[in-house]
Amino acid sequence: MGRLSNQKVNYFVSGGPAAYQCVEIIATLQAEGAEVDVQMAPGAEQWIPRAFIKQLLLGAASLVSTQPMLMVGALTVVQIDHELPEVDIAWVSAIASNIESAGVQQVIWLAGTAAASRFPVVERTGEWVVSDQSYSGLPRVDIDSVVAGLEKLSQPPLLAGKRVMVTAGPTLEDIDPVRFIGNRSSGKMGFAVAAAAWRAGAEVELIAGPVALPAPFGVNTTRVRSARDMLAAVESMVDQTDIYISVAAVADYRPDMQVDQKIKKAGAGLDLHLVPNPDLLRIVAAAANPPFCVGFAAETQQIERYAQGKLVDKGLQMIAANQVGRDNGGFESDNNSLHLFWPGADQRLPSTSKRELAYQLIEVIARRYSMGSTG
Ligand code: PMT
Q: Which atom of ligand 1 is nearest to the CA of 330?
């Protein structure tokens, strides 16, 4: 299923050289499952032939018109060129006033800063995606941010106004400049949870150990290496946190000393002495005024027993247990399943993509959070 399945998108494109990107954006929205309806400003046809847009829409019940008409109930994208031609200013103004008078909030404005500042309604509705990249000197928006923004606008804002902190990935504990110990984790589950919380309207801080994933759009991402680095980042943000979701596979131990020079290989074995790392989740949950704490538990056996033990032992409001050590699910895979526990109840989330699973988890967290931790 595409990220925009069953969504209708009303796409307005104004004239100017930046119009070139609308073709790529529209094709991406269609590939993600959206039904796209395009309306072009008078100046846009100089850059993008109307026949070409019609072809792109493949004869779907789409309108290619120079009269901007707002389709209420659809998601709306308005692409404003940085060099908006005079002929299109009235056209964009008409859309802006239609949006304002209809009270529509589900709008993505694609614009350069200068163009956007000419239309104050841009700051009062929806999301604003700035074309801060460039392609051969032309402004260029990050298309994934357009898709992410539309996904966000299409979902209920379950966590609007809430501040969510997520830890993800492994922590690596250095032995010397070339060697470390650590746990397995690609970061996929934690990044998906952070993105899902953002789509649910939360302000999200993601603290990630070393992983190869790009920062999710809209999420403030801090990169760390060791458990102690992660703890410092967590402690610096926890006072501004309503919900803490600890997905990270934090290394339980670290070498008692880290040396500056590479340890040379000798014939005999090497003795490493390990000392326990701080337990970040336990520390946060035991604080005087803790956030709503959600732990994760990766288990190879007796999932229920071990997960419930951690729920009680660490003083959490919820724990999400997952089976690891099998071929599919858990570490590194794109799919996973979770078994959620909270005091007195549990709920299974069957195997699906980590993206979808993260959304389902956020729905349960939002519901439990709104009921109060003991509700
Ligand atoms: O990153 P992926 O490849 O997508 O894989 C995802 C995952 C399998 C790593 C993830 O879904 C998961 O299960 N994370 C928890 C890993 C784990 O084994 O946790 P734990 O049982 O060691 O710890 C329990 C809880 O305490 C966790 O929330 C953990 O973040 C936290 N903890 C643990 C140790 C420690 N020193 N500090 C902590 O905060």
A: 8
Q: If you ran DSSP here, which 8-state letter would residue 120 be given?
A: T
Our measurement of the distance from residue 187's CA atom to the centroid of its chain's CA atoms, rounded to an integer in Å, reads: 12
Give the C-alpha separation, 284 to 150, whole Å. 34
Report the catalytic residues. 183
Q: Is 0.70 topped by the overall pTM? A: yes
Surface-to-core class of residue 270, CB atoms within 10 Å of its CB (0-12 exposed, 13-18 middle, 19+ buried) = exposed
pLDDT in tens, 219-263: 999 999 999 999 999 999 999 999 999 999 999 999 998 999 999
Structural domains in the chain, CATH included, are 8-153 (3.40.50.1950), 163-371 (3.40.50.10300)
332 lines ligand 1 (CB under 6 A): yes
Q: Could you tell me the two tokens for 313?
A: 């032992």
Atom of ligand 1 nearest to the CA of 354: 4
pLDDT at 315: 97
DSSP assignment of 81-100: -TT--HHHHHHHHHHHHHHH
For 18, phi then psi, to 5°, come to -70, -10
3 state DSSP class of 161: coil
Q: How many residues does the chain have?
A: 375
Dmax over CA atoms of the chain, in Å, equals 80
User: What does the DSSP 8-state code read for residue 122?
Assistant: H
Rounded Cα distance, 131 and 113, in Å: 8
How far apart CA 211 and CA 343 sit, in angstroms, is 33
Give the residue from 36, 24, 31, 26 showing the smallest Cα distance to 1.
Answer: 31
Is residue 91 a contact partner of residue 14, using CB atoms and an 8 Å limit?
yes
CA distance 11 to 150: 12
